[in-house]
Amino acid sequence: MVFITIVLPYTLCMNFIIFGTQYISSLLYFMAISAVTVIVFTIFFTGIGSLAVFMKKRFFKEEQVGVRLGTIISFALLLSALVLWLLFRFYEAIPYFRFEGSDETFVWSFCALGISNIFLAFLHEGISRYQAWKQNRDETEQLRAIYQRSRLQGLRSQVNPHFLFNSLNSLSSLIMEDEDKAEKFLDEMSKVYRYLLRNESDILVRLEEELKFLESYHHLLNARYGTGLQIKVDVANEYKTKWLPPLALQTIIENAFSQNTISKTAPLVVSITTGADELIVSNNIQLKRITSNADIEAGLDNLLSKYSLLTEKGATIEDTIAKRIIRLPLLNEQKEAVV
């Protein structure tokens, strides 16, 4: 759009600088020179634009803007001098143009072309920054929307009547059987809800906090499923200070026990380990024949969508006949998230 807007008036101005009033001496003369100049400047500005795009990809960091602009402007000025010299020689070589170049005309032409190149270099940088800002704004809005859905999904899965009924039912049974166990269950239940409320507005939490929450969450599930649900955690200490979305593990584990059958003879085993800057969560597959929850994958889908916006390396799912493996990238710092 910039090129189409400026190429015609720029062609007219440059030709007036080079030829003076001779440029409009006749319609045929005007058209011939304009055609040559438009072709030359089209190739020239296309080349400069391609260089700007290449330099933007090569030196994309914020602190490299000086190198990027300096290289583009320097190359553009050198190429401007070469293009003008070739253009002057071309006009001199064709008798029809009746052109005799001078140093003064060359200098004025070079100044006009050079100033235009500098202006276009900064304009291209400004457009690039605007597009990056707009893309970042759109992705941030998407992340907020997905995060809200994920947060509501996580809260709904915990506070829905079925979960609350099962928790209270388990608590009631424990009170009748063993008051100490009932007190422990109530304590862990309060930790689960406290974690949910405390991290209601957080985008990321440390892995060690998520694992502590998982212990309390597992305690509640253990009262219901017993040894039918086994959660094995083997996480290296070096990864516990890294970051991930809150309730990520709860989302995956709930998805696993919602889709698969659980029994003492055929337990559902969830394994949580670490790899190269990633958390690996796997479980054996023993699918239920009928599931009552039509949105069973909604929470997991929201988690995957959130990861796709948080980091270039998104979360992945690998399904085999016997096992599902989910890989969650661990962020080194909270500022790595695109928020």
Overview in brief:
By secondary structure, the chain is α+β, with helices and mostly antiparallel strands.
Task: Give the SSE map.
Blueprint: H1 2-19, H2 27-58, H3 65-93, H4 103-159, H5 161-177, H6 179-198, E1 205-206, H7 207-225, E2 229-234, E3 243-244, H8 248-259, E4 268-274, E5 278-284, H9 298-310, E6 316-319, E7 323-329
Helix pairs in contact: 1-2, 2-3, 3-4, 4-9, 5-6, 6-7
With strands numbered from the N-terminus, the spatial order across the biggest sheet is: 2-4-5-7-6
| Rg (CA only) | 33 Å
Sketch the topology as an H/E string, one letter per element.
HHHHHHEHEEHEEHEE
The percentage helix is 55-70%
CATH topology of the largest domain: Heat Shock Protein 90
Structural class: alpha+beta
How many separate domains?
Answer: 2
Largest sheet entry: 5 strands, mixed
Report strand %.
5-15%
Total number of strands: 7
Mean pLDDT rating: 81
Second-tier CATH architecture of the largest domain: 2-Layer Sandwich
Stretches with pLDDT under 50, minimum 5 residues:
155-160
- Estimate the global geometry from the Cα principal axes: rod-shaped
Q: What's the CATH first level of the largest domain?
A: Alpha Beta
Structural commentary:
- This protein is α+β, with helices and mostly antiparallel strands.
- The protein has two domains: 2-136, no CATH class; 160-336, Heat Shock Protein 90 (2-Layer Sandwich), CATH 3.30.565.
- The protein has nine helices and seven strands.
- It has helices at 2-19, 27-58, 65-93, 103-159, 161-177, 179-198, 207-225, 248-259, 298-310, and strands at residues 205-206, 229-234, 243-244, 268-274, 278-284, 316-319, 323-329.
- A hairpin with a 3-residue loop joins β4 and β5.
- It is rod-shaped and about 110 Å long.
- The model is unreliable at 155-160 (pLDDT under 50).
